[in-house]
Amino acid sequence: MRSYRALLHGDRLEWIEEVPESQTDAPLPVHVTVLEQELPAETDARGLAMAAILEDLAKHRAFSAIDDPVKWQRALRRDRVLPERKE
């Protein structure tokens, strides 16, 4: 089974990249998985909320005590247990 990217327009598929090669002119059986997409309004609202939180953190200088942000971030990631890994 191979996968191809396409857009669904009503009852028609518009191929985005590689087009499947049909061996004959007969209909080609397919399984189509519809990818869920967030509504632009939801994405915009979440982005605005995140921006407000970041502005509040900056206003309160929440991370001003961190001398080396890269070192701090590495230390945080090292402490986290990753899924499907023993260490």
Order of helices and strands: EEHH
> How big a fraction of the residues is strand?
5-15%
Radius of gyration: 24 Å
Q: How helix-rich are the residues, as a percent range?
A: 25-40%
Identify the overall geometry.
Answer: elongated
Oligomer: single chain
Reported for the largest beta sheet, the result is:
2 strands, antiparallel
List the strand order in the largest sheet: 1-2
Would you identify the regions where 5 or more consecutive residues have pLDDT less than 50?
none
Q: Could you tell me the number of beta strands?
A: 2
Strand pairing plus helix content: what structural class? alpha+beta
Mean pLDDT: 84
Distance between the termini: 35 Å
What does this structure look like?
- The protein has 87 residues and is an alpha+beta fold.
- The protein has a domain at 40-79.
- The protein contains two helices and two strands.
- It has helices spanning 40-59, 69-79, and strands at 6-9, 12-15.
- It has a two-stranded antiparallel sheet with strand order 1-2.
- β1 (6-9) and β2 (12-15) form a beta hairpin.
- The longest helix is centred in the middle third of the chain and has 20 residues, at 40-59.
- 0% of the residues are buried.
- The model has no long low-confidence stretch (mean pLDDT 84).
